[in-house]
Amino acid sequence: MTPDRSRPRATHYDLVVIGAGAGGLVTSGGAAQLGARVLLIEQHRLGGECLWTGCVPSKAVIHAAQLARNGGGQRWAEARANLDQAITTIEPHDSPERFEDFGVEVVIGRASFTGPDAIEIGGQRVTARRFVIATGSDPAIPPINGLGELPFFTNDTIFDLDEQPEHLLIIGGGVIGCELSQSFARLGSLVTLISNSALLPREDPEAVAVVRAQLIADGVTIIENAEVASAGGEPGAIRLTLADGRTAEGSHLLIGTGRAPRITGYGLEAAGVETGKGGIVTDAWLRTSNKRIYAIGDCRDGPRLTHAADQDARTVIQNALFPFRKRKDYSALPAAVFTDPELAQVGLTEPAARALHSDIKVFRQDFDHNDRSVTEADMRGFVKIIVLGKRVLGVTIVGAHAGELLALASFAVSGKLGLSDLANQTFAYPTLAEALRQAAEQPGQAALFSPFMRKLTALFQRLP
Ligand SMILES: Cc1cc2nc3c(=O)[nH]c(=O)nc-3n(C[C@H](O)[C@H](O)[C@H](O)COP(=O)(O)OP(=O)(O)OC[C@H]3O[C@@H](n4cnc5c(N)ncnc54)[C@H](O)[C@@H]3O)c2cc1C
Ligand SMILES: NC(=O)c1ccc[n+]([C@@H]2O[C@H](COP(=O)([O-])OP(=O)(O)OC[C@H]3O[C@@H](n4cnc5c(N)ncnc54)[C@H](O)[C@@H]3O)[C@@H](O)[C@H]2O)c1
Q: Which residues form each disulfide bond in the chain (predicted)?
């Protein structure tokens, strides 16, 4: 029998979690399995952005676009079928029944704080020992003249699109803009991508150059460092006018210009929770200005990624339930842009490391010297390892399967390993991962094959 999910069964819990996206699900499921009495409140459907409007549909579209590449024709319908299938397959993992089996009490409704230690939900007042806010973020819509009068898409709506866009205009050259511009181009739409920055402004520019070249080869028209001054035209024939007078016309418009944390309309002021421009302010332990309330994932100031929300959740389970506290630490948080080629980063990029330290060293290995890249006939990209002294500060990988290869690099950065730890590994031949070892062995090889070593070797050969 389906339980009544319209109101809580009790008035007090050990932990109340607001929002059932990646952050809220991991927190509530983990805490309940550890034995805490947990109430999880979700206003819409469990799974959040990642399942319904983010990672899952976008990666399914990317996969369909890979298959469609060079196939010709308009292939959005196939991508739509693929993304619907992916969501249907993953949805049971995030179902209320599964979390109820873990011992979580699930209520569907909108929670609102009424004071520093209480919320209201389903007309009922609920108190808790600790609260976790995991309310996520909305697409940020830029203040462009005329935009309000036109139909436009965001990640909340683009994956429900029924018809193939003839010509998709995209504002924003970040992760969404790059991943989806390439996908729609490969699926057979004309695509124009406009950004007020360079593409992927936070990433290594040399790596971005490799991605940019592929987007152009796929037919994406890219306009970088350009302000969109106004939007006009009509549905089906949208015209963007840039500040320098240029115009771009298309049938559909997608906005991917960053995120706005969800911090209004649910009583954060009444709870005494401080917010800033970047979201809910948290301390080193992810506590808000109200020490009994934690904030995790996209709603707090900090990185907005599913695995960041997951990492936050694990930190908060420990901090909210146990006396041994754990600090938040994003220094080894990996990130991948799932374009083709992929761009993956962990730790500091080369420009970020140079801004902090004057004496870093950078070791780069291009994939055109990797045998597997040659046999796969895909030699785009490189591995770059950024080192301070002996310590690996960061790794940038651009190329095929860069997101997968990054796992090894993440391990090196989070484990505070030295370059020699990577250089001394033996990797299966022929694999792309060998490029990491080849980059890591560059300084050692210079020392190993030096004139001094040559003399030493010769000397040893003369010994009886
Ligand atoms: C197109 C796209 C692709 C992405 N791809 C990736 C990727 O490949 N890898 C990656 O790591 N990240 C990716 N992300 C980012 C990722 O989706 C988010 O960082 C992640 O989903 C955030 O999880 P969250 O739990 O913080 O918030 P959300 O998933 O947004 O969950 C918040 C939940 O809170 C609920 N809620 C809000 N207010 C209330 C309230 N008052 N009461 C009750 N419920 C409430 C909402 O309904 C929602 O379900 C992508 C994002 C987008 C937009
Ligand atoms: N693979 C992944 O992990 C993945 C994929 C998609 C999205 N995401 C997450 O989702 C979030 C949102 O992605 P996003 O691409 O919207 O944000 P983003 O921050 O990655 O990029 C936004 C881009 O829009 C540009 N921009 C901002 N205002 C503009 C304006 N008025 N006109 C033109 N350009 C403008 C910025 O300069 C920037 O290049 C990100 O935080 C990202 O972490 C992650």
A: 50-55
Q: In this structure, which residue's CA is closest to atom 53 in ligand 1?
A: 54
CATH topology of domain 12-46+95-139+260-321: FAD/NAD(P)-binding domain (3.50.50)
Cα–ligand 2 centroid distance for 7 (angstroms):
37
Report the residue among 53, 215, 257, 259 best suited for mutation to probe ligand 2: largest number of ligand atoms under 8 A from its CB.
257
pLDDT of residue 70 exceeding 80, the answer is no
d(CA 49, ligand 1 centre) in Å = 4
Query: Best substitution site from 175, 225, 240, 340 to test ligand 2's pocket, by max atoms within 8 Å of Cβ?
Result: 175
The DSSP line for 74-128 is --HHHHHHHHHHHHHHHGGGG-HHHHHHTT-EEEES--EEEETTEEEETTEEEEE
**What is residue 1's predicted lDDT score, i.e. its pLDDT?**
79
Sign of the torsion angle spanned by Cα atoms 40, 41, 44, 48: negative
Domain ranges of the chain: 12-46+95-139+260-321, 147-257, 335-446
Least confident piece of the model among 5-9, 127-131, 281-285, 388-392: 388-392
Any bridge partners for residue 42, and if so which? 108
pTM as predicted: 0.97
List the residue whose alpha carbon is closest to atom 4 of ligand 2: 175
> Comparing 12-46+95-139+260-321 with 335-446, is the CATH topology the same?
no
Please name the CATH architecture into which domain 147-257 falls. Answer: 3-Layer(bba) Sandwich (3.50)
- Tracing tokens 């090196």 back to the chain, one arrives at 412
Q: How far is the CA of 397 from the centre of ligand 1 (A)?
A: 26
Rounded to two decimals, the ipTM of the complex is: 0.99
- Would you say domain 335-446 falls under CATH 3.30.390.30? yes
